[in-house]
Amino acid sequence: MAFLEERKVALITGINGQDGSYLSEFLLNKGYEVHGIIRRASSFNTSRIDHLHLDPFAHKGGRFHLHYGDMTDSSCLVKIIGRIKPTEIYNLAAQSHVKVSFDLSEYTAEVDAVGTLRLLDAIRTCGLENSTKFYQASTSELYGKVAEIPQTEKTPFYPRSPYACAKLYAYWIVINYREAYNMFACNGILFNHESPRRGETFVTRKITREVAKIHLGLSQCLELGNLDSKRDWGHAKDYVEDLPVTDVLQFCNVLEAKGPYGNIVNLKQIKRNTMHKVFFMPSGDYMVMFIVIGLLYELGLSNFVDIEPTHIINLFFNLVIFSTTPEDYVIASGETHSVKEFVEAAFRHLGKEIVWEGKGVEEVGKEKRYWNSQNKNQPQIFSTNRSSDASKAKAKFNWSPKVTFPELVKDMMNSDIELMKKNPMA
Ligand code: NDP
After folding, report:
1. Around Cβ 406, how many Cβ atoms within 10 Å?
2. How distant, in Å, are the alpha carbons of 122, 183, 284 from that of 128?
3. Considering only CA atoms, which residue is closest to atom 33 of ligand 1?
4. EC number(s) on record (predicted)?
5. ipTM above 0.90, yes or no
6. Are strands 193-194 and 184-190 parallel, antiparallel or unpaired?
7. Using an 8 Å Cβ cutoff, are 330 and 153 in contact?
């Protein structure tokens, strides 16, 4: 397969979602031209990417472009792909909420399943099947009623929601097009990953928002469903760290922060395209890297960019860029925690321990709070527990998670406390 290596043009569907926003920052920092598809909405829906979209300096030279489109409209997908001819497509668009998929089952299938097919077909219609790499955001929800613990790439699927069924179709159609048309297409089977940018309707964000409000005296209680439901909650950041690209960045940050050469080599002032070359040095070869960086600095390369590793999703990029052959990978932290543990960690961060009493009452510090126990109207079928084994991705990309569960909760809590202080109505 021959690829257009000289062009770096990414198309991201779901660009204004949690992952899409992080991926945009990451790709822009790597010098990509980034295009994203957004849906027309009756109110603003670009808050996660406004800093890239409205600030001309954030996207350095107008390399960030948004297009109106929809995964349910194949003609717009063909037009956008035909016009921009992306070298990489990251399909992150989805009706991504499991519970909502029970209410919007047909629509979820249209977007998550058939939408993926539309996108793959649009690539073929535009004659780009041998020059465009394709990444599909697949999900641990495919495992549903778990038959095997932990789950790997070989664990049989048993989807238990319209969302998971739709994503299962997408998973297989990606493999089918890879094999039938020799396309470079891969699935990342992602376990839950959270961050301050997580959608407000997802349980982790619901917890951190409400606990922040309780902390600030803006709310009295938090209502939750199944407290015993367990998930593998990674930090979105961690889907980056220890991968080949971030090895370099981490090294740079360490040097800059406290290394003996930190004053000589201001690594935040290494020219962008120079950094790109450095990026691809073998991971772990730190001394060689340092010498090269030092030399470049001495040569006076100094026009400069911030090379902060943005959060997330570099792993998507690694799956697409560093893989020599397209394959499918489980991406997960390997640790599971219950919803109850998440709540406890959120309060612990505020210095308050919870004493759970029976089903609905507990103590928060010295105060009593009342909580809902199980919501009987909620479909419980999807609430099976998860346990992951991401050793294939770990071996391939030398990756292991760094952010601990309490750190993840802390990051989200701090962000929501700040948010609520600024805007109590948020
Ligand atoms: P979000 O829900 O935050 O983002 C979903 C994105 O898809 C939004 O930008 C949304 O746009 C867009 N979208 C929804 N419907 C359509 C449509 N019909 N046409 C075009 N765009 C549409 O999800 P995340 O960023 O958290 O997740 C990214 C992907 O990864 C998703 O596919 C998700 O299913 C998958 N995934 C995520 C996991 C996680 O823990 N975060 C775990 C496993 C898989 P709008 O703002 O207009 O609604």
Report:
1. 13
2. 9, 9, 35
3. 96
4. 4.2.1.47
5. yes
6. unpaired
7. yes
Q: For residues 321 and 142, give the distance between their C-alpha atoms in angstroms, rounded to a whole number.
A: 25
Contact 197, 48 (CB under 8 A): yes
Tens of pLDDT, residue by residue over 365-396, are 434 343 333 344 544 444 466 778 888 887 87
> What separation, in Å, do the N-terminal and C-terminal C-alpha atoms of the chain show?
49
Ligand 1 pocket: which residues have CB below 6 Å? 13-14, 16-20, 37, 39, 41, 45, 70-72, 92-96, 111, 137, 139, 190, 192-193, 199
Summarize pLDDT for 133-183 with one digit per residue, the tens.
Answer: 999 999 999 998 876 888 899 999 999 999 999 999 999 999 999 999 999
- Burial status of residue 55 (CB atoms within 10 A of its CB: 0-12, 13-18, 19 or more): exposed
* H/E segment holding residue 170: helix 162-181
Closest CA to 142 of 162, 114, 120: 162
Distance CA 249, CA 293 (A): 12
